[in-house]
Inverse folding.
């Protein structure tokens, strides 16, 4: 009996303990929190585009694609036209240019001729008159030695002639001036091509004498005579010299070979002759630098150009360009260039702007080479072959 009671007590205790555990676990469990409400989301500020203010964009009315106007494509689309190539000019024929321009030359040159004729027409030609004649010739840049020769011959012929009519005096003066100028000198610019090479002409002279312009004008003379020309812009030290020469070439259809500014002039000259040979051109004209800072530098530079060009073929002409208005200063320049290269001909520019036409006589006597071309103005076709008879007629007047 006691054992039964004990078992009952133990069962009650066990049941009670189990019930306490269940109740304790229920007390410790918390119900899950209710689900949160949907939060309000604020959009971040939009980043501004180019030209927009840095603020949140405002709503603007929007249009549908049907409401947007499309550009009108019915008309022709405008296309920008490229600039046209420069029109090739047809230069004036070189033959007889000096004769056609004689009137212009005589207006500025006949001071010498009129002065001499006036003095020679005096009834008594004493020593004072002959001194005046000498002064007139020297003022016209004839030069000391040619002046003395001319005055001596005039004195002898006037003494023999006796009575002197205006026609006789003009004929006498014309004959003596022609003798000094040398009508028998070969004034042909040698530009004839040979079987394997074109005619090669190098143009030298001091900057400011019209050297590059003369090269361009000479190209026009040659093109007018039916020649094909290549220009070599070897004056690389003067700003825009190559542009200037190329412009002259484009006007008559001549091809221009040029190099970088301040580049080697000899390289440009070499390439110009090479290009002329490959193209089968008739003439290559080479414009050279004209700096006279030091005679040694000039000699080295021009000498190098000459040597490099002659690796292709010998030069046919070396033309010296002189400003006729510089007088005795031009003779100094001529001496310097004659020491550097073998001058074969002279080009006198600005001959219509001075009464000192005697420079023709002086420079020929100084260098022993003929004046072959003269520039009579600023026009593109004002470079003319020198004709002694036409020049003297303009000098003394009709």
């Amino acid at each position: 009996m006691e054992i039964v009671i004990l078992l009952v007590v133990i069962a009650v205790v066990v049941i009670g303990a189990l019930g306490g555990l269940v109740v304790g676990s229920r007390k410790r469990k918390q119900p899950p929190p209710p689900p949160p409400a949907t939060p309000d989301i604020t959009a971040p500020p939009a980043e501004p585009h180019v030209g927009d203010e840095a603020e949140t964009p405002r709503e603007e009315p929007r249009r549908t694609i049907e409401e947007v106007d499309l550009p009108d494509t019915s008309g022709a689309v405008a296309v920008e036209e490229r600039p046209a190539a420069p029109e090739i000019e047809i230069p004036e024929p070189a033959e007889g240019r000096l004769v056609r321009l004689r009137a212009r030359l005589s207006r500025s040159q006949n001071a010498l001729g009129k002065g001499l004729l006036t003095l020679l027409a005096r009834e008594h030609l004493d020593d004072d008159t002959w001194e005046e004649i000498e002064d007139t010739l020297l003022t016209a840049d004839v030069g000391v030695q040619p002046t003395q020769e001319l005055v001596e011959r005039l004195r002898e012929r006037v003494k023999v002639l006796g009575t002197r009519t205006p026609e006789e005096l003009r004929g006498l003066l014309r004959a003596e001036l022609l003798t000094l100028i040398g009508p028998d000198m070969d004034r042909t610019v040698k530009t004839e091509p040979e079987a394997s090479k074109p005619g090669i002409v190098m143009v030298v002279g001091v900057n400011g004498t019209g050297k590059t312009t003369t090269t361009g004008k000479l190209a026009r003379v040659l093109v007018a005579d039916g020649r094909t020309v290549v220009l070599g812009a070897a004056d690389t030290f003067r700003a825009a010299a190559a542009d200037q020469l190329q412009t002259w070439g484009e006007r008559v259809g001549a091809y221009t070979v040029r190099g970088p500014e301040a580049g080697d002039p000899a390289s440009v000259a070499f390439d110009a002759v090479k290009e002329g040979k490959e193209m089968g051109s008739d003439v290559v004209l080479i414009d050279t630098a004209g700096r006279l800072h030091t005679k040694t530098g000039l000699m080295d530079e021009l000498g190098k150009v000459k040597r490099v060009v002659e690796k292709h073929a010998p030069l046919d002409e070396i033309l010296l360009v002189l400003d006729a208005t510089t007088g005795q200063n031009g003779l100094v320049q001529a001496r310097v260039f004659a020491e550097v290269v073998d001058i074969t001909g002279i080009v006198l520019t600005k001959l219509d702007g001075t009464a000192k036409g005697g420079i023709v006589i002086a420079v020929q006597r100084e260098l022993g080479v003929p004046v072959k071309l003269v520039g009579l103005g600023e026009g593109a076709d004002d470079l003319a072959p020198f004709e002694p008879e036409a020049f003297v007629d303009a000098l003394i007047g009709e």
The radius of gyration is 48 Å. The chain is about 45% helix and 10% strand. The longest helix spans residues 2-28.
